[in-house]
Amino acid sequence: MQDKKIKCKVCGTNFDFTAGQQEFFKLHNLSEPKKCQTCKEKEKQEKSNNTYSFKKIA
Fold first, then answer.
1. Do residues 17 and 46 lie in contact, with contact meaning Cβ atoms separated by under 8 Å?
2. The model's pTM
């Protein structure tokens, strides 16, 4: 298996999907990544910043 270039669906950057990563994804029945690591981390950070506070209803 060879390394593969994938285009990020968010920023359009090409990133490497290594042979080792492909084997791991295949072994765990996962689909190919659609976002680069930078966009994944940015999305994760944005989600953690969007915390919700809930009011206790008496």
1. no
2. 0.71
